[in-house]
Amino acid sequence: MRELKILAVVVFFSGALYWGVEPFAHSKLHPHVEAPEYTFSDVDGLNGATGDATKGAELVAANCTACHSIEKAGFPAIMDNASAAASYGVVPPDLGTAGHIYDENFLAAFIKDPIKATKTEHKYVDGKVHPMPGYGWMQPNEIADIVAYLKSIAPKTMSNKEVFVDACQRCHSIKYGDFYGGSMAAKTPDENIKTYMGVVPPDLSQYIRSRGVGYLHEFINNPQKHLEGTAMPRVGLTKAAEDQVIAYMTEVGDSKKPERESLAGPFLGYLVIFAIFAWLWKAKIWREVH
Ligand code: HEC
Ligand code: HEC
Fold it and tell me: pLDDT per residue over 236-271, tens digit each?
């Protein structure tokens, strides 16, 4: 009878912790946010329009190459990184891969209005302007032409690292990616990005561990959801590109993950064998006592 009472007390307190305290603490530490949304239906994107890449090529040459390089299409950078960072606050990305890594609706919305598309209205008050002018004055079919052109020159496949470099490295370093070579330092010098963003974006080497995959997907897709008022703009990646960025962050920050996971089977086997020996030993001791 006494044992049953003890069991009841243990069950009661474990239950209270498991179903009461833990979910409550979890909901406070990790408030629920909506799942990532990769159609970017909240922005004024392509609205179903399809464009003409040949016309888009002319529009891009006339409007975009003063700031952006497109190396593969024969538009080298006009300034080196240091001068570009000093002029714009951040090194403008090369547009050769934009059509692959960004969602097409997001891309159209970004070209029309970079502030709205990146959900950074709160930063551009009191006459502050975004370093990239919006092209809302263009016809919707011209915006669609630009998107069609960017898609036509983009590679069909990219490595995880290449996606990270083009999507994140103009602002973030990920030094463990190549600690001694130094090639994974942020492209924009700290003092310039600080003036532009208000803070120096953190080094992302260990964020896969401190934040985890779920948080990273929600955050990259819409930073405001987790950190309201944050300086980080929404980047507008496709689901596939976002998966690649996170895969790269895992390769860099948690390189032993596959090895660790492959140990689970042998480790459980060890526990089972160990439990059998422990039980045999206990049986032997009690045999001697009786
Ligand atoms: C006056 C300079 C300037 C011009 C002109 C310009 N851009 Fe940009 N663009 C920038 C800067 C600076 C950034 C980086 C902004 C940031 O990271 O916050 C940028 C970022 C981008 C991005 C990345 C979007 C993202 O979500 O990260 C794309 C795509 C882009 N521009 C396309 C274009 C296209 C297409 C044109 C021409 C129609 C164009 N830009 C014209 C300066 C410019
Ligand atoms: C235009 C610059 C810019 C780009 C591009 C950018 N970020 Fe950021 N990011 C920031 C800034 C600024 C912060 C710091 C935000 C703050 O402190 O409010 C930040 C913060 C973060 C954080 C920390 C969030 C937290 O919970 O503390 C993560 C993770 C992150 N960025 C991931 C990424 C990834 C992945 C990419 C590429 C897909 C990316 N960022 C692209 C500017 C940028």
Answer: 999 999 999 999 999 999 989 889 999 999 999 999
Which of these, 70, 83, 246, 241, lies nearest to 174 by C-alpha position? Answer: 246
Report the alpha-carbon distance of residue 166 to residue 243 in Å, rounded. 14
Residue 191: CB atoms within 10 A of its CB come to: 11
Q: Whose CA is nearest to atom 16 of ligand 1?
A: 90
Q: How many residues does the chain have?
A: 290
* b (16+ CB within 10 A) / e for 135-159: beebeeebbbbbbbbbbebbeeebe
Question: What pLDDT is stored for residue 1 in this prediction?
Answer: 86
Q: Ligand 1 test: best mutation among 132, 135, 153, 194, most atoms within 8 Å of CB?
A: 132
What digits encode the pLDDT tens for the residues 98-128? 999 999 999 999 999 999 999 999 999 988 9
Mean pLDDT lowest among 21-35, 68-82, 95-109, 191-205: 21-35
**Long-range contacts, stretch 178-186, CB < 8 angstroms, 24+ apart:** none
List, chain by chain if needed, residues with CB within 6 Å of any ligand 2 atom.
90, 167-168, 170-172, 197, 199, 201-202, 204, 207, 211, 216, 219-220, 227, 230-233, 235, 237, 245
User: What gap in Å lies between CA 14 and CA 16, rounded to an integer?
Assistant: 5
What are the structure tokens assigned to 46, written together? 């392509």
Contact 102, 110 (CB under 8 A): yes
Burial class (CB in 10 A: 0-12, 13-18, 19+), 204: buried
User: Which residues does 18 contact at the CB level (< 8 Å), separation at least 6?
Assistant: none
Identity of the residue numbered 7: L
Residue 31 predicted with pLDDT over 80? no
